[in-house]
Each structure stands twice: as C-alpha cells, then as structure tokens.
Amino acid sequence: xxxxxxxxxxxxxxxxxxxxxxxxxxxxxxxxxxxxxxxxxxxxxxxxxxxxxxxxxxxxxxxxxxxxxxxxxxxxxxxxxxxxxxxxxxxxxxxxxxxxxxxxxxxxxxxxxxxxxxxxxxxxxxxxxxxxxxxxxxxxxxxxxxxxxxxxxxxxxxxxxxxxxxxxxxxxxxxxxxxxxxxxxxxxxxxxxxxxxxxxxxxxxxxxxxxxxxxxxxxxxxxxxxxxxxxxxxxxxxxxxxxxxxxxxxxxxxxxxxxxxxxxxxxxxxxxxxxxxxxxxxxxxxxxxxxxxxxxxxxxxxxxxxxxxxxxxxxxxxxxxxxxxxx
Length: 327
Hints:
By secondary structure, this protein is an all-beta fold. The protein has strands at 2-3, 54-59, 63-68, 73-77, 95-99, 102-106, 112-116, 129-134, 137-142, 148-152, 155-156, 159-160, 172-177, 181-186, 192-196, 211-216, 220-225, 231-235, 246-251, 257-262, 267-271, 288-293, 297-302, 308-312. The two termini are 23 Å apart. The relative contact order is 0.13. Residues 4-43 and 155-164 have low confidence and may be disordered.
C-alpha cells in the first residue's frame, strides 16, 4: 500500500498488460512486492465504534471493494497482487475504486492511497483529491483547481495508448478511465470531454449537453443527463441502452454489459447476447443506492446500506466471497 503524500523511489521492471496499474511512459511497472509497508501515519483515522452501513461498492476485473459509513474498506475476490489482502485497516476513507489488479482510494485528507499491483507508485498526485476512478490506470481530480491527474499502465496487446493518461486541461467534476480512453465532466457546464483511442467511437461519439455522471468502456460510454436523469450512451453498443430516468450508471470494463439504477433504486441491465456474460435478465430485485459492474458480474448496495448483492459470473469469489449483511 502506498500513500501519495510521501516520496518514493521505484525500480522499473518488465512489460504489463491491460488491467494493470503501472508507470505511465515506461515499459512496465515497479518491481516491488504488493506488501509494501506504508510510510508515515495520520492519513487514515482510528475508530472505536463499528460501522453500521455500506455506502458504496466498486467492482473490477476479478475483485471488488466496498466502503462503510465510517470510511473503512472491505475487499474480496481474486488476490493476485495484494489487491484484497493489502486493503488498509484504518477508517476515514472518502472513496474507493477497484481497477485491474490494484485498488485506489482517497483517505480522510483526500490523498490517494494505492495497494495491489505495482506498489509503490512514483507518480501519484501530490495533493488532496476530490474524485477518483481506476481502470488499467487511474485518474483523480484535484481539490484545489479541479484539474485531472492520471497515472498507471495503458498497455493493450503490446501497444501503448498514452492518450488516456494525458488528460485535458481545465476543471472537472467527474472522470472515468479505461485502458484506452477516458471521459470527464466539465465543472460548471457539465459538458463531456473524452480523449484517447476512438476505434469504437467511444470518444467522438460523446453527446453534447450537461451531464451529472459518466462511465466508459473501451467500446462505448454512458452518461446521465443533469436535467432529467436521461441515459445517453454512445459508441459500439450505445443503441442497446434502455429508455428511462436513472440516478447511477456503470459500464463493464469488457463493454459486454452495463447497468443503471432507476429513480426507485431498481437495477436495470442491458448487453449483447452471445458475447461474454450478459447481465440483462439477471438483475436482483429490491431497491439499491450504489452500483458497479465488473468484467462479468455486478454488485450493488441495498438502500439503507444494510447489505451488498452481487450477481453474474463467480470465477474468483467476486460473488461467493462478498460480505453478508451489514458491515
């Protein structure tokens, strides 16, 4: 685990593939183990009480994590690089995002903390952040000026796609990143700004207008209209999106499926039959308040935070090892 407020020295190793957080601009990641002891103290908080509710969930390729009302983090699923076992045990975290074989979070002061593959990192943002997302690499938004910083590995099939990690200038309120492309929401205007590989129209196809949330895959993206919660999707599978009013949306990293929460908290999924695991028709019943789609599965937090439900393919315990009941 590594925290962004401390200076680190790293060695660069061999090549890496999609779904791995490495060092941008190099041919690989840091040749250290995933059990690096964090340096310094005070970025998390201690607590003598127990959490009572889940507040958010995030699903990656083969592992998932959830955040509690006290800011503690629980992760489960495959633990290839310490992305589960090295989860910090202190409290006060504001956000967590699982991506590839690593996980990133914002601590109580807004500093980035990363654990799992390629720890320590040398290029984490130096100051407090307000928003974070992870894919093969990660991007965050600075608290002071809304600028985006990205780091990690953008390799895909032996070719490096650096544009996802060279973000546009300006101030932003949200960002979503994959191995090839990314999209962000401009602060104030709500306009979408996308960059990176446009092979499937996931960049040039972004609609005009003001949006409150966005998520992307390599092949397509989806965003929620700031005015009415309308779901607008674009790219290779943009025409599969349902009509309706929604409060949250999440797209699988594979681009096979996507899910959204409607105004009543019900889960609505869609996808392409015959390609991977289509989550359409597998949605759980009930009302939910947080949702995230992984490579072939999804997880959601029940309204009120009393439980987490996961569904889809359970290849590495993404579903079977999920927490049961309240935290």
